[in-house]
Write a structure and sequence with these properties.
- The protein is of the alpha/beta class.
- It has three domains: 46-106; 140-269, Up-down Bundle (Four Helix Bundle (Hemerythrin (Met), subunit A)), CATH 1.20.120; 275-466, Rossmann fold.
- It has 16 helices and twelve strands.
- The strands form three sheets. Strands 3-2-1-4-7-11-12 form a seven-stranded mixed sheet, sandwiched between helices. It has a three-stranded antiparallel sheet with strand order 5-6-10, with helices on one face. A two-stranded antiparallel ribbon has the order 8-9.
- The longest helix is centred in the middle third of the chain and has 32 residues, at 247-278.
């Protein structure tokens, strides 16, 4: 068209302004000549350094204007601040975003962003972190915790679910009660087990059925040493079955083996230990014990039934206070009892005793004793006073593979006594030099064997159980 070539110099400003005019159909208007002197044309002639300086100045002016608006109306609503930011920025969308961010930082107003569904997000319910106060150097020490049954593995048997909950809440506390409950639960698992087609019990039961039960119990509370030994023996029994062994025959063999283990290693072991330990009590002795242990309690009652007259001093755990029940039971049986609620005045009480009887949760391969916290204090005080320290423990609690020289390698944190200021360990470690002897269900040496002899005892007792 003639209007597109009217003698106007060809530059960026004129051509950018002339194109709309040509589209409107006004060909000879003087507008293109006037646009060469417009502010936009002058802006295009600025150097890059000048443009950068001008942009910084405009940005500083906008920030100053926003600050003045906030100072003038500090209680203004977020909507008014957004409007002020929009006027300062000159861009509506960007001003809205900057207004929200600055209000959240300077005005301390929390802006809730809508969720994808359009609903206001609810504040999350954060569970209390019971391990939050534990230092990093103790982070390896486990702690019992309650696991909802809905989060358990789908293959966990209901009987095992119930046992896990009881362990997590310490309704099942000592090692033998936990072991017996676990074996009875495994018995129900075996009874309800059916070998899938194309598999054998000796190859399928342990990895696909037994292991999920063990993992759940371990998550609820770390396994005690008695449970670990029994599970090792149970797996060894399963692996000894031939691949062609009939399912009913294998299941009957496992059920009989569990019944035998409970009878021999728990029921008869308790009776034998109580009988052997009662023979160590003489007429007129003063027996000192710590807290309450079922083997010590059975021993003292057995000695009373034998017609022996003796006194008992009970040093109680100041946290658990289980010794109160032991003192009541012994007094009802006619045994004179001196009860101490804590370890205060331990040295004179130990010095007045004839023997110290202690119960243990486990004995390691180096002869050290794993027992409730406070046991080591009693044992060391007794040895310093020249009093014999006798430990009562079943061989199912012996660990022939591991050693322990401190209380931090194998322990648990008390979940009920874990605060921001301190936490409590459930067990301590007593070195073998503070132990005079260990009484087990064996009658070798009158039932009082050195702690270092546990390896020979285990070889003698456990090998026939697997065959």
């Amino acid at each position: 068209m003639p209007a597109e070539n009217n003698g106007v110099p060809d530059n960026g400003a004129s051509s950018g302004s002339a194109a709309p005019t040509a589209q409107n159909g006004v060909g000879n208007a003087p507008t293109p000549v006037k646009s060469t002197t417009s502010p936009e044309a002058n802006t295009e002639k600025l150097t890059p350094a000048q443009l950068k300086a001008k942009a910084k100045a405009e940005k500083a002016a906008r920030r100053a204007q926003v600050k003045e608006a906030r100072a003038a109306a500090p209680q203004a609503s977020p909507a008014l601040d957004k409007g002020a930011a929009t006027d300062a920025k000159g861009v509506k969308g960007r001003g809205r975003q900057d207004g929200q961010q600055s209000q959240g930082k300077a005005g301390h107003l929390h802006v809730h962003r809508p969720s994808v569904s359009g609903r206001r997000p609810s504040s999350p319910m954060l569970e209390k972190d019971i391990r939050g106060a534990i230092p990093d150097c103790f982070s390896h020490v486990p702690m019992a915790k309650r696991i909802p049954t809905s989060q358990a593995h789908k293959d966990v048997h209901p009987a095992v679910l119930a046992v896990g909950q009881q362990m997590a809440t310490f309704a099942l506390n000592d090692s033998i009660s936990r072991l017996k409950a676990t074996l009875l639960a495994f018995r129900k698992v075996i009874e309800s087990y059916e070998t899938p087609k194309g598999n054998s019990l000796s190859r399928h039961f342990v990895p696909h059925v037994l292991n999920p039960q063990i993992e759940y119990l371990t998550e609820c509370r770390p396994m005690c040493f008695a449970m670990g030994n029994a599970i090792r023996l149970l797996k060894g029994k399963v692996n000894k079955f031939d691949i062609d062994t009939a399912e009913d025959e294998a299941k009957d063999g496992l059920l009989e083996w569990i019944d035998f283990l409970i009878k021999e290693r728990i029921t008869l072991a308790e009776y034998a230990i109580a009988r052997n330990a009662a023979q160590s009590i003489n007429e007129g002795d003063t027996i000192l014990t710590y807290s309450r242990h079922r083997l010590v309690e059975k021993t003292l009652l057995e000695a009373k039934r034998d017609g022996k007259s003796f006194d008992v001093t009970v040093i109680d755990d100041p946290f658990e206070r289980n010794g109160q029940e032991l003192a009541k039971t012994l007094r009802q049986a006619g045994i004179p009892v001196l009860y101490s609620p804590n370890l205060g005045g331990l040295r004179p009480k130990v010095a007045a005793a004839s023997n110290v009887f202690l119960g243990g949760e486990a004995i390691f391969a180096n002869g050290s004793l794993h027992a409730p916290s406070g046991t080591a204090d009693v044992a060391m005080a007794a040895m310093n006073a020249g009093v014999k320290v006798i430990v009562l423990c079943e061989t199912i609690n012996f660990d022939r593979d591991r050693v322990s020289v401190d209380s931090l390698t194998y322990n648990e944190i008390d979940p009920e006594r874990n605060t921001a200021d301190c936490f409590r360990l459930l067990f301590d470690n007593t070195h073998d030099k503070y132990i005079t002897g260990v009484i087990t269900e064996f009658e070798s040496g009158g039932g009082n064997s050195p702690a270092q002899a546990i390896l020979a005892l285990l070889r003698k007792q456990e090998d026939p159980l697997i065959d």
